[in-house]
Here is the input.
Amino acid sequence: MQMVHRKINLIVPFLILSFFFATVSVAKMRSIDGNNVQLRSGPGTKYAAKWEYGDGLPVKVLTQKGSWVKVKDFENDTGWIFNKYLSKTPHMVVKVNKGKKKKINIRSGPGKKYKTIGKAYYGVVFKTLTQEKGWAKVKHDSGLTGWVKRSLLWGY
Here is the structure.
């Protein structure tokens, strides 16, 4: 009886850890790899296209079915993308000021005391270079590289 009790004591923590790591591995982030990549309503080309995404847009992986990956974007739209159109290169998108003409600041360093070197509207995508103390160093396709307050961005 003691031997059975020991096995249960070992198995229960293992199952809890397995569930935790399985859950964590599903919550991956990816970025769109290519332009005009279609987000579909189901896992296959026979399903209707809901949106077209541009290169670099970050998406959260929800699940996978074969070569198709169900994702969610920064506006909470969900759908399916063929796996070859997803990259592990980290990107972020401006998530604030939707429908406004207000821009966020891109600064020369990680803090408000640094000079503003550029600005960006809602929906602008950046490649993520590094993150530090609530700030992200990002690079735009135009070549502009600077720091943005992390809470203004969505992605990884």
Remarks:
- Confidence is low (pLDDT under 50) at residues 3-26.
- The domain at 92-155 is CATH 2.30.30.40 (SH3 type barrels.).
- The CA atoms of residues 66 and 73 lie 20 Å apart.
